[in-house]
């Protein structure tokens, strides 16, 4: 069975599907257990009643990579209007270390007293759907700008990132060994852009 992206599930009601993604949230309530899985396209809730399947997630932390095979069922209360039932779980990559107190399923507060924690664990808080939307909006804006300029025959260039020497004086530069020669990380593409404007 081929993998299905979560965003495709509303069109596959009453069909069996296989999804793969990250364990996003666990609500273990005894008889009824709700597990939310996230992939690059969205999130879906799964209803687990089989104790053996729930047991596979014992000790697994958020971020565990899982594969769920189940039947898509309509439920207006669920995100996206559907959820998975009769789920069989495969843990693909277990995560057993407890994570810091960053709740990726709730809005992240960007208050000054939280900044140290947010910067320290940025790799975790970018898993938050609201945080991801910032990057998605920015990517879409850049895509639109690129298409606008391409349609008007602008040429996109990439300037060198490693140079033989610093292009701007007075600032600290990052130096490195480049196949036995000293190189410097470029500080600014301005010099190259000025050349290309005239060409």
Structure commentary:
The chain has about 200 residues and is of the alpha+beta class. It is about 25% helix and about 30% strand. It is built from five helices and eight strands; from the N terminus they run βββαββαααβββα. A five-stranded mixed β-barrel has the order 1-2-3-5-4. The chain has a three-stranded antiparallel β-sheet with strand order 6-8-7, with no helix packed on it. The protein is elongated and about 70 Å long. The protein starts with 15 loop residues before the first strand and ends with a helix. The model has no long low-confidence stretch (mean pLDDT about 90).
Sum this structure up briefly.
The protein is α+β, with helices and mostly antiparallel strands and 199 residues long. The protein contains five helices and eight strands.
| Estimated helix fraction | 10-25%
Radius of gyration: 24 Å
Strand order of the largest sheet: 1-2-3-5-4
Give the overall shape, derived from the CA principal axes. Answer: elongated
The run of helices and strands is: EEEHEEHHHEEEH
Distance between the termini: 53 Å
Number of helices: 5
The quaternary structure here is single chain
* Overall pLDDT confidence: 88
How much strand? 25-35%
Total strands: the figure is 8
Stretches where pLDDT is under 50 for at least 5 consecutive residues are none
Index terms:
alpha+beta; five-stranded mixed β-barrel; three-stranded antiparallel sheet; 5 helices
What are the SSEs and their pairings?
Elements: E1 16-28, E2 33-39, E3 42-48, H1 51-55, E4 65-74, E5 82-93, H2 115-120, H3 122-125, H4 129-151, E6 162-163, E7 175-178, E8 181-185, H5 190-197
Parallel strand pairs: 3-5
Antiparallel strand pairs: 1-2, 1-4, 2-3, 4-5, 6-8, 7-8
């Amino acid at each position: 069975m081929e993998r299905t992206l979560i965003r495709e599930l509303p069109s596959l009601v009453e069909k069996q599907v296989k999804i793969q993604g990250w364990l996003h949230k666990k609500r273990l309530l005894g008889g009824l257990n709700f597990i939310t899985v996230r992939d690059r396209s969205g999130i879906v809730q799964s209803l687990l009643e089989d104790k053996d399947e729930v047991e596979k997630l014992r000790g697994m932390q958020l971020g565990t990579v899982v594969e769920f095979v189940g039947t898509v069922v309509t439920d207006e209360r669920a995100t996206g209007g559907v959820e998975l039932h009769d789920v069989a779980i495969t843990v693909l990559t277990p995560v057993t270390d407890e994570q810091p107190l960053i709740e990726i399923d709730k809005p992240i507060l960007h208050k000054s007293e939280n900044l140290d924690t947010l910067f320290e664990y940025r790799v975790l808080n970018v898993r938050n759907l609201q945080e991801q939307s910032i990057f998605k909006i920015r990517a879409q804006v850049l895509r639109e700008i690129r298409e606008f300029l391409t349609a008007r025959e602008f040429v996109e260039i990439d300037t060198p990132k490693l140079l033989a020497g610093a292009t701007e004086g007075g600032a600290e530069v990052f130096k490195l060994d480049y196949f036995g020669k000293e190189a410097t990380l470029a500080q600014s593409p301005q010099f190259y852009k000025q050349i290309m404007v005239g060409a």
